[in-house]
Amino acid sequence: MAALSIGKAWEESTAFVKREGQLLFPVALLFLAVPVAILFQMMPPEFLQMTPGQKMPPLPGTVKLGMMITAVITLAGSLTIFALALKPGISVGEAIRLGVQRLPVLLGAMLIVGTASLLGISLIAGLLAAVIGLAGAMRLATVATLLGMLYLATRLLLLNAVVIDRPGGIVQSLKAAWALTSGHFWRLAAFLAVLLIISSVIQMAVQAVFGVIAGLAGGPAAAQAAGDVAGAACSAVIQVYLQVMLARIYRQLHG
């Protein structure tokens, strides 16, 4: 089993981003920040103002289409950043072409994992409902779903790196990503959990600050727009560091 050092991966990532930021951040802006910011502006106000426990309002068809397009663009952008991080000397244009070329493999892998997860959740919920009743089954199924999502997200944390660095197809990529994280689950799960918490706090703080400043100048509409744009930009910056760090972790475990 290959050794894993989160600290070393972080040091290498910060040095790489400092050196290659002029390539990484424009890609993140184009593929990660701009599409998400546009999608936020398409969202109905009542959807953005939802409170916990409130029933989700119906989304217009244009918003659903926008969500799918945004997902595809951001995935292509993610693969492009991984290409820049994993393949020394590659140009931005070459990285984009490679990311688009390998995108179907990533989409296929995600479709397989999503379908299998949905079937598994449905089976577990049905069995629990038969044993302990519907109400209890729903609560346990929710907990099981969250734990299952964390497990899958951790075991497949290096899927993007595998897809962009190796020529294999969908099944081969899934097997390789799964094998790489074998024996490192708890450390990677802790890393993922801490990262999600920290990034969420930072993003909410940035949205709040820019929203307040814009709100003082232009009212609620300006506050919402500025907060959305700032949040999308902040998320893109965080994604650059995250994906470069995952690329460094991948290199540690694969070589």
From TrEMBL:
The chain crosses the membrane at residues 23-43, 63-86, 106-134, 140-164, 185-217, 229-250. Residues 5-253 form the DUF7847 domain. It holds the Pfam family DUF7847. Keywords: Membrane, Transmembrane, Transmembrane helix. The keyword Ribosomal protein does not apply. This is DUF7847 domain-containing protein.
